[in-house]
Amino acid sequence: MQAGGVSPMGMPPGPPQMVPMTKVELSLSASDLKNKDVMSKSDPVCIVYMKETGQDRWTELGRTESIKDTLNPQWVRKIELDYRFEERQMMRFAVYDWDTKGSKPSDQDALGTVECSLGEIMGRQGSQLSLALKKGGMMIIQGDELSASKEIVSMSFVGADLDKKDTFGKSDPFLIFYRCNDNSSYLPVHKTEYIKKTLDPVWKPIVVPARVLCAGDHNRSIKIECHDRDSDGSHDLIGECYTNLQRLLEGPGNSNTYPLINPKKKAKKSSYKDSGKLILKLASCHIEPSFLDYIRGGTQIHFTVAVDFTASNGDPRTPGSLHFLQPGVDNQYALAIKAVGEIIQDYDTDKMFPALGFGGKVPPNWEVSHEFFLNLSPDNPYCHGVAGILDAYYRSLQSVGLYGPTNFAPVINHVANIARRYTDGSNYFVLLIITDGIITDMDKTRQALVQASNLPMSVIIVGVGNEDFAAMEQLDGDEKRLSYNGMYADRDIVQFVELRNFLSGNHAVARASLAQAVLKEIPSQLTTYMRRIHSVK
């Protein structure tokens, strides 16, 4: 289906068009938070909720990354939302000391909450609002209208002769880019991966929208900080420099070779020159179509689901099993299938979806398979719509024996082999893996994902149950680039979420929140793939 709805020429008479909405971006920071850790400082995370007009329930919009060991966090991850002038959109900002990886907010130490309306933020001079948190400290919320610019900036940087910050080894440097706002404050907008043990790092190419980097203004100041990463979060500043997009687009040369200045060192030593150099190797700017541009142009999104049939799920006949079927109530697997499938199916013309199972003993030979068709057909994996997937899943529970181990590589390779046939941008494949367990073929899974990273596909992993899913985080390349045997992923194609973070008494609300979390990276992953194939051409 070519998304975008009915042609304007064929639209029947109807109600007036909706009032236009403005996309805004919230940047969050806090100061003087209460310390909850005895031997170190807190590891704060902020979760943002919204209550729409006429609703009583708070809905999670998103959450920041965790920052280790700080009481004054400045989070890089932004919260995007629609701003409607005509409505009072109530917001809640809840800050937690996130010590237990991957668990519910209720399991963490609360550091404070604050509520306000989105209008209060956007209506304040400079669109910055500071509010006192109930348990101490301040919450600082910066609102920015997102530029409609479709400019994409591509940059490559290397470092040279950086200061050695580690006593027993070289530095592990990474970069943070800051955008100057109208009130002259700087907000972090992009962070690179860190490079281990080097004073001459070569970072992977940086691709960032101009609206993020400089609000679309080529003359707006950009600050770049170079830090030495420490595992406990106490990163050391190596040095900083300032530039703007207009200067960067002049390309490599003396004007884009930057001395990295450490303000503390400069203040102490009159002979101080710099703490190394930051050197631009490449910079370009181009107009890039958006996700919707590609969809309207005919790109089809294909959805495949893979369901975990390992024994750790529990006997499906017993209420304690994650596969237990109770009339009128979705189990966690069904909830995940509905949440993702009901969104994705709108972008597929025929709504025929392949569905797989793994880790089960399959009839008639009762051999363990890590790549069987959920409908148990010998040669046709397709199910009609989300209802067809659920029907195949329910019926397979009556026939497939739960066993193990938990291997992901076969189903990833299954979809990758299909995606490999369609690399022209006309088709994009999304694999949803629903699992309760810890991966037993981690090396092969890493290899499969690295090899699939240059294909038109994304992998969503939803963890169900109460396992410790900490190992899954290494597959999501947000913090560290995924690699296998020295080969690095071409791009990040994995999104992992834990279903228990989205469970509530209202399944419709839980399903909507889960869908938002698991699908939010698909548009950027698709456009990143399109950018890659067009640059190759």
Entry keywords:
537 residues, alpha+beta, Immunoglobulin-like, Rossmann fold, 7-stranded mixed beta sheet, 4-stranded antiparallel beta sheet, 11 helices, globular
Rounded to the nearest angstrom, the radius of gyration is 24 Å
* Helix percentage: 10-25%
Largest sheet report: 7 strands, mixed
Summed over residues and divided by their number, the pLDDT gives a mean of: 87
What is the quaternary state of this protein? single chain
- What is the strand content? 25-35%
- How many H/I helical runs? 11
Q: CATH topology of the largest domain, anyone?
A: Rossmann fold
DSSP strand count? 28
* CATH superfamily descriptor of the largest domain: von Willebrand factor, type A domain
Question: Any idea of the CATH class of the largest domain?
Answer: Alpha Beta
Question: What form results from the Cα inertia axes?
Answer: globular
Low-confidence stretches: 1-20
Topology:
Layout: E1 22-31, E2 44-51, E3 59-63, E4 79-83, E5 90-97, E6 109-117, H1 118-123, E7 128-132, E8 138-145, E9 151-160, E10 173-180, E11 186-191, E12 206-209, H2 210-214, E13 221-228, E14 236-244, H3 245-248, E15 257-259, H4 263-268, E16 277-287, H5 291-296, E17 300-308, H6 332-344, E18 352-358, E19 360-362, E20 367-369, E21 372-373, E22 382-384, H7 385-396, E23 401-402, H8 409-419, E24 427-435, H9 442-452, E25 457-463, E26 483-484, E27 487-488, E28 494-498, H10 507-519, H11 522-536
Helix pairs in contact: 6-7, 6-10, 8-9
